[in-house]
TrEMBL record:
One Pfam family matching this protein: TctC
Signal sequence bounds: 1-24
Entries under CDD domains matching the protein: PBP2_Bug_TTT
UniProt feature coiled coil, ranges: none
UniProt xrefs under InterPro entries: BUG, Bug_dom1
Family: Belongs to the UPF0065 (bug) family.
Protein name: Tripartite tricarboxylate transporter substrate binding protein
Alphabetical keyword list: Signal
Gene3D superfamilies: Bordetella uptake gene, domain 1 (3.40.190.150), Periplasmic binding protein-like II (3.40.190.10)
Protein source organism: Sediminicoccus rosea
Length: 326
């Protein structure tokens, strides 16, 4: 069974790479780096951040200190990153909710994504997985679930890590398209959603695959489909949404490290180059795949390009959901 502890141990056991070339010529980091994770411990963003930070620590010899600041769909932690001193010693893994969704969801935000963040590098991408509790839901396919949900007295409920997250928007789109009576139940993260589903309090979720791989492999949850265009290596027997009879439902969640705007360009370049180096390590790619995620890296401009390209899609999904927050 793959657990957060074993994943982190795997990261620690991996051989360190020595910085070379331009990396060796840069001084950053010269002291510990504060890493604010806008989600609770144990979820996909937290686990994958820790794997990245342990490799950065092994390469640089400096500590990367994790601080979990969950709440408000990731906005509390993101705001802490935005308002930190722009000296290169505070950063955080910010999901696409911050980069591409929040501006369409909230009437007011404590930060301006385009003005207040300095992207560093893409970190990971993964599909969402359509999951149900094995003990409480008889459906074994997506189509069986639609039949089950439509016939269920009082409808169904779907969990997510918060309003406006990809899990919320995917769940909302699913029930709307299939004419299902569905109620959204927001939590602070998958670490709370999963127990609620296992106890039968929540019927289903279409949430980040990485958070659910262990409980799926244990048999406590049943995966009905993944939202990627092709099947995922972590769950090769699970069909895509299209294969499961749910067309036009291809969605990828992703994350990118960000710093406060105003961090000196040489520090941003050094951090980006380091993260791209780690993302391209075969051992890193293997460890990420074990969690259900693909390790990816990019230039800072690559983060902006992806964020802005995907905004129209998420703007439309927010409209369909009817969600609007102050």
């Amino acid at each position: 069974m793959t657990t957060r502890r074993t994943l982190i141990a795997a990261g620690l056991a991996a051989p360190a790479l020595l910085p070379t070339g331009s990396l060796a010529q840069s001084a950053w980091p010269e002291r510990p780096v504060r890493v604010i994770v806008p989600w609770p411990p144990g979820g996909s963003t937290d686990v994958l951040c820790r794997l990245m930070c342990e490799r950065l620590q092994a390469i640089t010899g400096q500590s990367f200190i994790i601080e979990n600041r969950p709440g408000a769909g990731g906005n509390i932690g993101a705001d802490a990153v935005a308002k930190a001193a722009p000296d290169g010693y505070t950063m955080g893994p910010l999901t696409l909710t911050v980069w591409s969704i929040a501006q369409f969801l909230y009437a007011r935000l404590p930060f301006d994504t385009d003005r207040d963040f300095q992207p560093v590098s893409l970190h990971w991408e993964l599909p969402n997985v359509f999951v149900v509790s094995s003990a409480h839901t008889p459906a074994r396919t997506a189509q069986e679930f639609v039949t089950f949900a439509k016939a269920r007295q009082g409808g169904v409920s779907y969990g997510s890590p918060g309003v406006g997250t990809t899990a919320h928007l995917c769940g909302s789109l699913f029930v709307a398209r299939n004419g299902i009576d569905g109620v959204h139940v927001p939590f602070r993260g998958a670490a709370q959603t999963i127990p609620a589903m296992l106890s039968g309090d929540v019927t289903f979720a279409i949430d980040n695959l990485a958070s659910y791989v262990p409980v799926i492999q244990e048999g406590r949850m049943r995966a009905l489909a993944v939202t990627s265009a092709t099947r995922h290596p972590a769950l090769p027997d699970v069909p895509t949404m299209a294969e499961a009879g749910i067309p036009n439902f291809t969605v990828q969640s992703w994350c990118a490290f960000g710093m406060p705007a105003g961090v000196p360009a040489p520090i941003v370049a050094r951090a980006s180059e380091l993260m791209q180096q780690v993302a391209n390590e075969p051992a890193t790619k293997e460890r990420f795949l074990r969690t259900g995620a693909h390790a990816i890296g990019s230039s800072p401009d690559g983060v902006w390009e992806r964020a802005r390209r995907e905004r129209p899609l998420w703007q439309e999904m927010v409209r369909i959901s009817g969600a609007r927050l102050e």
